[in-house]
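User: quick one, fold this
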Amino acid sequence: MVYVSMTGFRPRGIAQLPVFWWRTIRSFTQAQRAPGNLVAAGRLVDGVYHTMTVWSDLASMRAFVASGAHLKAMKNFRQLGSGRTHGFACDEIPEWSTVYDLWRRDGRDI
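Assistant:
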């Protein structure tokens, strides 16, 4: 069993992009190196920046979220833009398109 998380973020405007990218690159690098991370992928879809991460378990994902660059990025989240997230457990690593469809249907605003 794995835990999958997708977040979509829309920056408020062009002025927020430098800080957004600084935070994103640092958080993405942290995710790639985090214990329990199996997949870290990003895509831009219709002006929304998406990350999909897959973890060996929920505890690994929670440890990542509550530490380092990601924690700092979350503290600036609302100042930079808006987004939504969706996470779920499943038996195997899903395709991006499957996770994206679930995110669109079941994601919650953050």
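User: anything notable?
Assistant: The two ends are 26 Å apart (CA to CA).
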